[in-house]
Design a protein that fits this description.
Number of strands: 8
Largest sheet: 3 strands, mixed
Strand content: 5-15%
CATH topology of the largest domain: Hypothetical protein af1432
Region (Disordered): 1-23
GO molecular function: dGTPase activity
CATH class of the largest domain: Mainly Alpha
Organism: Acaulospora morrowiae
Protein name: 353_t:CDS:1
Domain HD: 71-200
Shape: globular
Number of domains: 2
Oligomer: single chain
Strand order of the largest sheet: 3-4-7
């Protein structure tokens, strides 16, 4: 499907609405969403329909029964918001003609941004693949599946447009003349994008939680200044609510102790099943990756292959809620980050500090490191947001210091928690004692190290 030349003048010569060329989808979050025929062409493909079988929140569904929504509806919602926002921003521009190719590329990037997610979403790309293969991001899979979708369904697209869609998915700015469009789907500048707008609202809805963030209002009070999306200064606290909602969901839901326990059970089951399913090969084989969904657990569970016995046992324990047991956790002070890295605190290091007669092995222990922030590491993402005043000139955008609007703001914007789980429920207490011995030993080393540094500086 090539972009039509006659669509290149969208402001003054926009075609009248043709109900036969669009489709409506009723969504609990956004109401009736309208998709043009060129979007529907993408939706009605096996590559996109696959997302119906991948849970948006992965294993969280095993803890929060309402979280049954899938990547499919999230992708539709993100595309709907991207299309609405980019049209609005383009209509504000003072150019006499603007190519509709930009609208289509942004919309399709939003629609396809999650095509590469594997089983149980981040469990696969953040835990399973690193254990088997190494670092891998689902965006790489999304690019692979996008190419597969275009070729398999005979979509006629210019290579230039495909490249732009891929860059929009990753948020890498490749056009300095209109860099603001790269902020819409995956915003690397300040982390405000329609992907978050949809998943924050959608996740809260299905989790039975309330969100104070008003994404519709924020979109309505946005405009492009200096090739960057800016917001009315009154939206400062609305944006702050968005980042706090994100942090709150990570703290209360996405990194829930039981969810993380189940994450590791599913990851273990898939890693042990790799000799049969060859995930390390599948992630680069688009035809096979198409078949890889959350349904992989059922394939393992109901298989009679003796090589899958260990994986079946883990899944059976999951069905009976015989989960890996949470042992303990520690919130690491920011000044100790460099002293409590994976090198200092890992399964092998913990086991080396055991003193009991009943030994624990490395296979009994899981060390899980969780970083939670406002979306931009230890920085306040609001410092990277540009605002405009109600009576500002078109080229007058500015930053707002947090001290100008409130004194009740976080001192830090990132935290790291180290959690320990036990695969053997009979060894929880022993693992806890060993973990605390290890932690105490490291704290003493840190104390002596810092004391020596202080004494050295004092001598000078």
């Amino acid at each position: 499907m090539a972009f039509r030349e006659e669509d290149n003048y969208i402001n003054k010569n926009r075609k009248p609405h043709n109900p036969k060329s669009s489709k409506y989808v009723n969504d609990p979050i956004h109401g009736y969403m309208e998709f043009d025929d060129w979007v529907v062409d993408f939706i009605d493909t096996p590559q996109f329909q696959r997302l119906r079988d991948i849970k948006q929140l992965g294993s969280t569904y095993f803890v929060f029964p309402g979280a049954s929504h899938n990547r499919f509806e999230h992708s539709l919602g993100t595309a709907h918001l991207a299309n609405s926002l980019v049209k609005r921003l383009f209509d504000q521009q003072q150019h006499e003609q603007i190519s509709s190719d930009d609208i289509k590329c942004v919309t399709l990037a939003a629609l396809c941004h999650d095509l590469g997610h594997g089983p149980f979403s981040h469990v696969f790309d953040n835990t399973v693949v690193p254990k088997l293969f190494g670092e891998w991001r689902h965006e790489v899979g999304s690019e692979m599946m996008l190419e597969y979708l275009l070729e398999e369904n005979s979509m006629d697209f210019d290579e230039k447009d495909v490249k732009i869609i891929k860059d929009l998915i990753t948020g890498e700015v490749t056009d300095s003349k209109r860099s603001f469009i790269f902020d819409i789907v995956a915003n690397k500048r300040n982390s405000i994008d329609v992907d978050k707008f949809d998943y924050l609202e959608r996740d809260c809805y299905y989790l039975g939680m309330k969100s104070k963030f008003e994404f519709t209002r924020l979109m309505n009070f946005s405009k492009v200044i200096d090739d960057q999306i800016t917001y009315l200064h009154k939206e400062y606290f609305n944006i702050s609510d968005m980042f706090h909602t994100r942090y709150s969901l990570h703290k209360r839901v996405y990194n829930h102790r039981v969810s993380k326990s189940i994450d590791h059970m599913i990851a273990d089951a898939l890693v042990k099943a790799n000799p049969i399913f060859r995930f390390t090969d599948v992630i680069s084989n688009r035809e096979e990756y198409l078949k890889l969904t959350d349904g992989i657990l059922y394939k393992i569970e109901y298989s009679n292959d003796p090589e899958l016995e260990e994986s079946r046992k883990i899944i059976k324990n999951l069905r009976y809620r015989k989960l890996y047991k949470f042992v303990d956790e520690c919130l690491i002070p920011a000044e100790y980050y460099s002293h409590v890295t994976e090198k200092h605190l890992n399964e092998l290091e913990i086991v080396s500090h055991q003193t009991g007669d009943d030994p624990i092995s490395v296979e009994d222990v899981i060390v899980d490191r969780v970083k939670m922030n406002y979306g931009k590491g230890n920085q306040n993402p609001l410092d990277s947001v540009k605002f405009y005043g109600k009576y500002s000139k078109d080229n007058d955008a500015f930053c707002i210091e947090s001290s100008e609007v409130a004194y009740l703001v976080p001192e830090k914007y990132e935290e790291e928690i180290v959690r320990v789980f036990s695969r053997d429920p009979e060894k929880v207490r022993l693992t806890e004692d060993t973990y605390r011995n290890c932690l105490t030993s490291h704290l003493k080393q840190i104390y002596h190290s810092r004391s020596n540094q202080y004494n050295t500086h004092s001598d000078h």
